[in-house]
Design brief:
Blueprint lengths: L3 H28 L11 H27 L6 H20 L2 E3 L2 E3 L9 H32 L5 H4 L1
Antiparallel strand pairs: 1-2
């Protein structure tokens, strides 16, 4: 029995898990409102955001797979940025408005005023933070794939 089999599978699992979570997150943001019966005309406008999230997660997954294949450790800051991205994306999916025959609605508030305006006010920063944390996670994952930086003492 080859001892490299399970480790190669484990290497691919982390990258695949990140990709699947990114895909689910994008689906939640783009079409999650349909689960609650308030999907509407703005779904196609949010499709670009979903595509961007999936593409970023593809590259993050590849970088994490490379880091594991090379035997490098993934830093806690990389994991933290990913988790923050997923949390902000989940919040975005709850607060992003859609245009229905009854007007603008969100999953959290429906069309109830003034909470609808509050939810819409939360959605914009949540979306910005989602993309920001995802980009941070991508940069950190690429650094993890390159391995640890040598310390100043090691260079002398």
């Amino acid at each position: 029995m080859d001892s490299r089999g399970p480790t190669e599978r484990a290497r691919r699992t982390r990258g695949t898990a990140v990709l699947l979570i990114g895909l689910l997150l994008a689906l939640w943001i783009v079409a999650g409102r349909f689960l609650f019966g308030i999907g509407g005309e703005l779904t196609f406008a949010y499709l670009l955001l979903g595509i961007l999230i999936v593409i970023l997660h593809v590259y993050i997954g590849r970088a994490l797979t490379r880091a594991s294949a090379r035997g490098f450790r993934v830093r806690p800051s990389t994991r933290g940025a990913l988790i923050a991205s997923w949390g902000c994306g989940a919040l975005l999916g709850l607060t992003i408005p859609d245009l229905t025959p009854d007007g603008l609605q969100t999953i959290l508030t429906g069309s109830t005023q003034p909470w609808l305006e509050v939810a819409i006010g939360v959605a914009n920063p949540a979306g910005i933070l989602t993309i920001g944390f995802t980009i941070i996670a991508l940069v950190l994952a690429n650094q993890d794939a390159q391995g640890p930086r040598p310390h100043e003492d090691d260079l002398l």
